[in-house]
Specification:
Layout lengths: L1 H11 L7 E4 L4 H11 L3 E4 L25
Parallel strand pairs: 1-2
Helix pairs in contact: 1-2
Amino acid sequence: MQAIGEEFARIFADTRPTKILTAETSGIAPALAAAMFLKVPLIFARKHQPITMAPDPFRETSTSPTHATP
């Protein structure tokens, strides 16, 4: 995973990212590795709010291109 993060960081370094956004599923590990190499924050999107999350988190919705629902 370290090598993957390092490669992502190399590929995207010229874009000068300020943060990395990924889905809560299988994207977290490579995104975290890349964020560590790029020294930027990692944000991951969740589909549902867990009971342990703060009551007023940032929310945004989008329509699924495959299911036509948010």
